Amino acid sequence: MDSNIKFEKFTANDFSLYFELVNDEKVMAMITERAIEKNEAEVEFEKIIKNNNVDKNCGNFKIIDTKTNRFLGLAKLQIQNEYDKEAELGYMILPPHWGKGIASKTATQLIAVAKKHTQLQKLFAIIDPKNIPSRKILVNNGFISKEFRDFDGLPGEILELTII
């Protein structure tokens, strides 16, 4: 696939990049509806680093521009244990890179990774129902809406893609 982005797993040294994302009100507007403070971000980042050891093909990845080596955001293909049959697909892009097709390329590449990752049978994504651009990206990649649910007081739509 010809793409100008690549994925690299977050490592313990990447907290500042993660914090740049989750502390940005624009990025988090349709995720938590608020910027995440440092203490909370550190706890979440520890979980990410631990989860990145579950499987070499799944986890939380930095989205890197292959031309400039610049950090663009986070891509997630997350499972809870090595035997999981489904994974959560997600992404967060820094605002200066919005509207450039990065989220679309990220979703497409994550789906390709999941298809090569043979035990996975299903992907799901959770979005804010008002996040029309993300919904469009997911639907264009074959995801279908399954349900609307409350997530800690915030509205959420769950979309699924069967990959086998």
Automatic annotation (TrEMBL):
Top-level division of the source organism's lineage: Bacteria
GO molecular function list: acyltransferase activity, transferring groups other than amino-acyl groups
InterPro entries for this protein: Acyl_CoA_acyltransferase (IPR016181), GNAT_dom (IPR000182), N-acetyltransferase (IPR051531)
SUPFAM superfamilies: Acyl-CoA N-acyltransferases (Nat) (SSF55729)
Ranges for domain N-acetyltransferase: 5-164
Coiled coil, from the record: none
Pfam families with a match to the protein in the record: Acetyltransf_3 (PF13302)
Protein name per its UniProtKB record: GNAT family N-acetyltransferase
Taxonomic path: Bacteria, Pseudomonadati, Bacteroidota, Chitinophagia, Chitinophagales
